[in-house]
Amino acid sequence: MPVDPIIWYVKLEVYIFLGALAAIIAHRLLTGEINTNYLLYGIQKGGTKYFSPERVQLLLFTLGTAMFYLSNVLQNRSSGVLPDVSNQTLVMLGGSHAIYLVGKAYMMLFKKTGKGD
Amino acid sequence: MLLLLLQTTSTTPQANYIQPWVGNLAAWVALGFLGLIGVAILYNVFTGKIDLSGLISEPNGDASMSRFQLLVFTFVIAASLFLIIASAGPPAFPKEIPNGILVLLGISASSYLVSKSIQTSTPEGLSGRGPQVTIKTDRSETTFNGPTVQCQADVVGLSDTAVTWAIDPINFGTIDDTGKYTPPKSGQATTVTVTATSKEDVSVSDKETIKVS
After folding, report:
1. Segment A80-89, tens digit of pLDDT
2. Contact call for A105 and B21, based on CB within 8 A
3. Residues of B in contact with A70 (CB under 8 A)
4. In terms of CA atoms, which chain A residue is nearest residue B115?
5. pTM of whole model > 0.90?
6. Contact assessment for residue B142 and residue B182, using Cβ atoms and an 8 Å cutoff
7. What CA–CA distance (Å, rounded) separates B159 from A36?
8. CB-based contacts of B182: which residues, under 8 Å, 6+ apart?
9. β-strands A41-43, A49-51 pairing
């Protein structure tokens, strides 16, 4: 019995598994069954929540980088080589994460909540 | 792995010593077994037995941006790797993983770890979303005419962190505004209940016990 049908079925199984898992997770994220409450809100020292611009920029950079890379992979998938990520993209992503972490640390560890906040 | 195993077993000299139908049968059995596992996982996820509701949630119940970005990048890189393997002429792993991918995953994972460290280093990061008072004491028991017990109230979720202290039984020692409990000089061994009530929201309080003997 040739090997090719087996390879075809393995590919089919993995495509179906990954595709179904991604679809379920995406659906549940959009309908709220996977909790996304306060995704863009941070917590200040003292426990009060605040709308966090550093989370917004991290979300945008994450989704932008992920979609750009995925489109790159789809265009070059028959090359047999994983596309690399450019140094500029890595620097921007690293900077985005650094802004998020510094902002989070400052608000949670150092900034005191005033009566006007 | 199964794809590569099928490729190599058909070309290695050792394959000459194994009947081809045995190898193919083993491959079909493995394929069927993995398929069943995949179906079981998908079924349990779909019906809720594998609960994904807290997939990107922190211990305090809020959604976590660091978990979300780790999920996104892990899934994208894993899916990309599979696409590249499956789309190649004969399926094959890429000869090398580019350094940029490794750095990207490193940034994502490191950011998650640092974010978790910041989150867990403060009581606000671990508590529930509602306001809370939590009492901590420097000792859980004392003696008559013995050392004082310093109580501390951590208030989370309220702008005013001031609390009112009270003890029960009421006259079994004293407690001041700073939470310092002084045991009585004599009496019967008793467990004293210390209560800290938020001044901003009197419905938010906590209790702790101190044994006096």
Report:
1. 889 999 999 9
2. no
3. 76, 79-80
4. A101
5. no
6. no
7. 25
8. B148, B173, B174, B175, B176
9. antiparallel
